[in-house]
Design goal:
By secondary structure, the chain is of the alpha+beta class. It is built from 10 helices and 14 strands.
């Protein structure tokens, strides 16, 4: 009992010191440099095996909630946050205040106020190509599993697939790798890897905004000679099965062979993806028009979305990409009447210009 009381006292002391080192508890942040990157009044409450673990999960959960809000303000689907790991979300913070802390033996609750660093947010968007990832029909989430030395690895460095896919997926738009953030771990049931059915993974598919789950289930044999892999591509309509038996060339550098094997799996998915795109290319081109809206600040991202939301000629629009200077949407226009759309924009005081690749909109 004495040990538990001591641990709890130490935790309380550590937490209070941490909060005070950032800002004075009981007050809101005194100086907010970038209001668009500030999120306040995030309430967190977690229970775990002890207060330390509960606090860690609560802080990560609160930071991710705030991160999602920032993405939403930027007109980006919040599911893209799953591409970013917990540590990167923490690093994106420029300041954080913790108020109203309550700690018990195995629980923790608090109210968080956070401000994010605009430069680091831009770095994250560029790193994961987040502005361009839309989670369309042709989108795949790879969940690699490695069975080695009688152990099953999904998260962490022991799973050789993670670095292999992470490196080779950097230029892929519609294929993403599962992230080991706490939210994903909480929603993942390891028993489901032996039952490759989409219904068992639909929550993760929804979280990552993808339509296909790709299970890459691999056995690495004892003499390190073959990477034997069963591949299941799951969606709500069907399950595709494939296999890959990759002969290891250099036993002293098995990770290189995993990298080469991952390229073959990516090529296989791209082949499926391209076949699907070919079926949709005509209808897609007929229905949607590419609209480019120039911006000069983060506040204008919301303005650009409102330009489309408030236009009666717009039936539907989807974010295509985001850079520091421009937001790009795919827009479905009523009766595909581009002239009427441009006229309505100009009547609303917005400058619009039609070019070969789409419609360009400029704020006055």
């Amino acid at each position: 009992m004495f040990k538990k009381i001591f641990v709890l006292f130490f935790l309380l002391f550590s937490i209070n010191s941490y909060a005070e080192s950032i800002n004075n508890p009981g007050e809101t942040l005194q100086k907010i440099d970038n209001p668009a990157y500030f999120v306040g009044d995030i309430k967190v409450n977690k229970t775990d095996i002890d207060a330390t673990k509960a606090r860690e999960k609560a802080i990560f959960d609160g930071q991710r909630q705030a991160f999602n809000i920032i993405l939403s303000r930027m007109g980006i689907n919040q599911s893209n946050s799953f591409l970013v790991n917990d540590n990167e979300v923490s690093q994106a913070l420029s300041s954080m205040q913790i108020n109203n802390e309550k700690v018990s033996e195995n629980s923790y609750s608090a109210t968080l106020f956070m401000e994010f660093n605009p430069d680091y947010m831009k770095y994250i968007l560029d790193k994961y190509n987040i502005g361009k990832f839309t989670g369309t029909v042709n989108s795949y989430l790879i969940i690699p599993i490695l069975n080695e030395n009688n152990n099953t690895f999904i998260w962490g460095k022991s799973n050789r697939w993670l670095d292999a896919f992470k490196t080779n997926l950097s230029s892929q738009k519609n294929i993403v790798l599962v992230n080991s953030n706490q939210t994903t771990k909480d929603s993942f049931d390891i028993k489901n890897i032996n039952n490759p059915n989409f219904s068992n993974f639909k929550n993760i598919a929804r979280s990552y905004n993808v339509n296909n789950i790709v299970l890459v289930n691999t056995d690495l044999n004892k003499d390190y000679s073959i990477i034997s892999t069963k591949i299941f591509v799951l969606n709500k309509d069907e399950t595709r099965k494939a296999s890959l038996n990759y002969q290891i060339i250099n036993k002293k550098n098995v990770n290189k062979d995993f990298s080469n094997a991952s390229l073959k799996i990516i090529a296989y998915l791209n082949k499926l993806d391209n076949n699907q795109k070919q079926l949709n290319v005509d209808s897609s081109n007929n229905e949607f028009t590419r609209v480019f809206i120039t911006i000069s600040s983060i506040e204008e991202i919301a303005d650009s979305e409102n330009v489309l939301k408030n236009n009666k000629n717009v039936v539907e629009f989807v974010l295509n990409s985001l850079t520091k200077e421009m937001v790009t949407y795919d827009v479905k226009i009523y009766n595909n009447d581009l002239d009427n759309f441009i006229s309505s924009l100009e009547s609303a005081g917005v400058v619009a210009q039609r070019k070969d690749d789409g419609i360009y909109i400029y704020f006055k």
